[in-house]
Specification:
Layout lengths: L13 H6 L25 H17 L8 H8 L7 H25 L1 H21 L3 H28 L7 H31 L4 H4 L1 H15 L12 H24 L4 H9 L2 H11 L13 H31 L4 H6 L2 H21 L1 H19 L8 H28 L4 H36 L7 H27 L11 H9 L6
GO molecular function: transmembrane transporter activity
Keywords: Antibiotic resistance, Cell membrane, Membrane, Transmembrane, Transmembrane helix, Transport
Membrane topology: Multi-pass membrane protein
């Protein structure tokens, strides 16, 4: 890299930057698995890549595809306005809480087998979710989807980055580029697809759509993808259970408070159960192979980047949730029209993600991340001015585009900031933790924002009193989401510009192969 790019460490060349460009919660970095020899009949790299990209798209879509269907789900299954957030959080909590364990399972049983089992489990959970007739069973199915996604996700990118079917050099770079583009667009496309499916059929089709796709993918994986070598893996079950349990207790407390107020007994008990989080820290300090390597938090810049990775999805989940209901409850949009209304957000994210690598190499981490967060903050703050009489083009179309473009710029520099100076044996653990932060941040943030919404809506007469009270609540929730973006911006601006560092041979090899979770 030319000397003018000193702000960006030289080993983050264009190839590595492309590999880090995914803005959603994506698969953990693969380990350095060596694929088994590929027989001639299995050497179908185009089909193999199509299957892997389809898996990744399913996982990203299901984080958001049910958003547009939330009003229909709430009406049919009897969810409260705040309780609907569990339809999203059940998926993201299970996904984020079990992601690192899923990576270890892939090491133990082989990436292809883990991918196949994960896809089949995801398909079965999707079928169950589409058939349920009660709120409890739907939440169970969504949690099962998230657990299956946690098993599937770590193997998708691993198979792209290390499978011999994709060769070396330009062919593998092209595969990685397509993977990151798919991941970048997945969540936003989910909003649009959810509108189409709900309008054409019912909310159940946002889940049924996974069934034929998942069965086809699972049947073709053994025919096109070679198995990887297996590695011994240890499981920090206590860490996974206490960490996920503590976060779930916090999410429940916030959502319960939105419906029943802070004095509710169950809110008190839920906050008390969050004591599992300090227990989680004690467990991670003592076990030999922790699910979260606490030494990763020893570097200031990395802590800042992790915090920003938590806050940005926290704000964006609020944008998805509140805008969806505003479009349908306040503006009386059909599901299809509500889904299409998110198009400027999707276009903004995709456009910025394609530019982020070049901008990062030219302007450095802080400028690109800071600009992206400033734009995202401005976009969300602008949306918080919505009311019952707001016009779509001025209050939502333009700020959604600005917000999307800003978010599309943010995740690559944050990823680079996390991986700068990391040892090769820690790179996978850092990447897995980064993606866990995104999923958990989205769930925690949405639960907190729903509490803000509930308080504001009750102050305006309650959601049942009409669109005016709901719009008041949505506005307050989006204002709080903008505050999350503002805190992330301040943190990034407080980071130190990484010094240029020429890596050793082992460091370069580890970064180029995207070393997997430490075992």
């Amino acid at each position: 890299m030319p000397s003018r790019n000193r702000r960006c460490p030289p080993y983050f060349n264009r190839r590595n930057l492309r590999m880090l460009s995914s803005p959603g919660g994506h698969a953990a970095m693969p380990s350095t698995d060596v694929a088994a020899p590929v027989s001639p009949e299995r050497h179908r790299p185009a089909l193999a890549l199509t299957l892997i990209l389809t898996c990744q798209m399913m996982l990203m879509l299901d984080a958001t595809v049910v958003n547009i269907a939330l009003p229909d789900i709430g009406q049919e299954l009897g969810f409260s306005a705040a309780g609907l957030s569990w339809v999203l959080n059940a998926y993201t909590l299970a996904f984020g809480g079990l992601l690192l364990i899923g990576g270890r399972i892939g090491d133990l049983i082989g990436r292809r087998r883990a991918l196949t089992i994960g896809v089949l489990a995801f398909t079965a959970a999707s079928l169950l979710g589409g058939l349920v007739d009660s709120a409890g069973w739907l939440l169970f199915a969504r949690a099962a989807q998230g657990a299956a996604a946690a098993l599937t996700a770590p193997s998708t990118l691993a198979l792209v980055a290390t499978a011999t079917a994709f060769g070396e050099g330009r062919e593998r770079e092209r595969a990685l580029g397509l993977f990151t583009a798919t991941a970048a667009a997945g969540s936003a496309i989910g909003m649009i697809l959810g509108g189409i499916l709900t309008e054409a059929g019912s909310w159940r089709w946002t889940l049924f759509i996974n069934v034929p796709v998942g069965l086809a993918v699972a049947a073709l994986i053994p025919l096109t993808i070679a198995e990887t070598q297996r590695h011994r893996a240890r499981f920090d079950v206590a860490g996974a259970l206490t960490g996920t349990g503590g976060v779930t207790a916090l999410v429940y407390a916030f959502i319960r408070a939105a419906d029943h107020g802070w004095g509710d007994a169950q809110v008190t008990w839920a906050f008390a159960a969050a004591v599992l989080l300090p227990v989680f820290l004690l467990v991670e300090r003592r076990v030999r192979r922790p699910v979260v390597a606490l030494e990763l938090f020893a570097v200031r810049n990395r802590v800042i980047a992790f915090a920003a990775m938590l806050l940005v999805p926290a704000a964006m989940f609020g944008v998805f949730y509140f805008d969806t209901q505003y479009f349908q409850f306040v503006r009386d949009y059909s599901p299809l029209r509500a889904g299409v209304a998110f198009l400027p957000l999707a276009v903004g994210i995709f456009a910025a993600s394609t530019l982020a690598g070049r901008l990062l190499a030219r302007h450095g981490l802080k400028k690109v991340a800071g600009t992206g967060l400033a734009l995202a903050f401005a976009g969300v703050l602008w949306q918080s001015t919505l009311s019952t009489g707001s016009g779509y083009w001025t209050t939502l179309f333009v700020p959604l585009a600005v917000n999307g473009f800003g978010v599309g710029l943010v995740f690559m520099p944050l990823s680079v900031l996390i991986l700068t100076g990391i040892r090769p044996d820690q790179a996978g653990a850092a990447s897995g933790l980064m993606q866990t932060m995104q999923q958990v941040g989205g769930a925690l943030g949405l639960s907190a924002l729903v509490t803000v919404y509930g308080s504001a809506a009750r102050g305006a007469g309650g959601p049942a009193s009409g669109p005016g009270a709901m719009a008041e609540g949505f506005s307050a929730g989006l204002l709080a989401a903008a505050a999350f973006m503002a805190v992330a911006l301040v943190l990034v601006l407080a980071s130190r510009t990484p010094r240029a560092h020429r890596p050793t041979g082992s460091e370069q090899q580890g970064l180029n192969t995207r070393v997997g979770p430490a075992r």
